[in-house]
Amino acid sequence: MASKNSPSRRLKKLAAEIPPDNTIHAILVGLERLENGDYALAMIGSSFIEKALEVAILSRLIPMNDAERGQLFNYENRGPLSDLSSRIRLARAMGLFGPHTFADLERIRKLRNAFAHALSYITFATRQVEDICAAFHATRRVTGDARVPGALSRAKYVHAARFIAGALKTRINAEGVAYHSPTPPADDRLP
Question: What does the H/E/C string look like for 124-183?
Answer without folding.
Answer: CCCHHHHHHHHCCCCCCCCCCCCCCCCHHHHHHHHHHHHHHHHHHHHHHHHHCCCCCCCC
